[in-house]
Specification:
Length: about 190
């Protein structure tokens, strides 16, 4: 809980009564490896804050291939925020890569926080903006770099994830085959 409170306080001032109220709305959820936090074709049920573990955002392309486009690790929010807020069907999956522990908020509880705490919308807006900027910062080099450079950038940006994520998911994130990733790894050792 401490990590969660420290995280939200980076984006705005809240007093103890307000943070206690927010925490009172949270529940914990344990997700086992490969379980889904949110699924394509279903309305997202929660906003989560990842206390332990790694999740990935993925979808299936028109060829039926699984594409991983984002990883999130500890002390970050996890949500398909746009679909959650609108309560419409998600088009991608959020899946546990490792066993995970999350603080979660239902739509009702999330709305209760927003309706009770003055300035909560501004705080969550800044959090969302921060998450989007991180995503863009991590993804944009993947568009213009060759596969080896993309892999080296991945190692640099996600050093704590290298031994926690299956190579098939890293390859998918980098936009290469697992065989290509194996060759790259062999060549840079």
């Amino acid at each position: 809980m401490k990590e969660f409170v420290e995280y939200i306080l980076k984006f705005g001032n809240l007093n103890k009564q307000q943070t206690d109220f927010i925490i009172s709305k949270a529940k914990t959820l344990d997700l086992h490896k490969e379980e889904y936090f949110s699924e394509a074709g279903k309305i997202p049920r929660y906003v989560g804050f990842l206390l332990d573990g790694v999740v990935r955002f993925c979808y299936y392309n028109n060829k039926g291939e699984e594409i991983t486009h984002h990883f999130i690790d500890e002390n970050n929010f996890v949500s398909d925020q746009q679909k959650f807020e609108a309560q419409v069907v998600a088009s991608e999956y959020i899946q546990a890569v490792t066993d995970c522990k999350l603080l979660i908020f239902t739509k009702k509880d999330w709305d209760d926080i927003g309706n009770t705490i003055v300035g909560w919308d501004a705080i969550t807006g800044l959090i969302l903006k921060n998450c989007l900027l991180k995503t863009i910062e991590r993804r944009s080099p993947l568009v213009s770099e060759d596969a080896t450079t993309r892999y080296l950038s991945f190692i640099e940006n996600f050093p704590s994830l290298m031994n926690r994520i299956p190579l098939s998911q890293i390859a998918s994130y980098l936009g290469i085959t697992q065989q290509s990733l194996s060759r790259i790894r062999k060549n840079i050792r």
